[in-house]
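Protein of interest.
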Amino acid sequence: MSDQRIPSLVNLNWSELHQTLDEQGYAKLPCLLNSDVCESLMEGYEDESLYRKTIDMTRYRFGIGEYKYYQAPLPDLLQQLRDGLYPELAKTANRWLEHLNRSPEYPDTLAAFLDQCHQAGQTRPTPLILKYEVGGYNCLHQDLYGDIFFPFQVVFVLNQRGGDYTGGESLLIEQRPRAQSRGHVITLNQGEGLIFPTQQRPVSGTRGYYRVTLRHGVGTITSGTRYSMGIIFHDAK
């Protein structure tokens, strides 16, 4: 995967993406990974030299499926995505802190942020690839991995909904204080991405902003096999 390139992330409509994140807490990315790139990533699933750890989700009661964490150094494509998406998302992350009357704390570059992670003993890379077959699903959860975590993560679907698999929608659940939870169901086509909160987001209320806790998961696969790739920006202990 070392010779693969993605379209320049700076050409994305970040103004619109920032607004969408502020308004609804998540935002879809257009198709950034073409079918050849997606195929290459899926073919690499069986190359164990790429990964540091494999998780059987059933064993840990996380759901039904399997995922693998990439080892360092990350494949070039993943590094491009991680480096390229971080700076603009850091702007929204710091803006959200200000909404909650906190000082900005996320540096401008991923390298500077990862240095903070490493100083805290979080040195293991967290980008991962996930595979679900018929009946597979991912329980609602949060990907924190340590005391330091970035408030956004991104998932890309690698094969075609409706062709390679059915079901498997992305799920976001907002646990609103003193109110019933609200759910979002998001569908992604091959190569598209979803930006969503890792733990919380600010919501504007009558007395200013308040925190809403979020968890994410994947609905049940009803046919075929679904592959996806997760970009998590903080490293793990």
Q: What stands out?
A: The longest helix spans residues 76-99. The first strand starts at residue 27 and ends at 29. The chain has a mean pLDDT of 95. DSSP finds four helices and 15 strands in the chain.
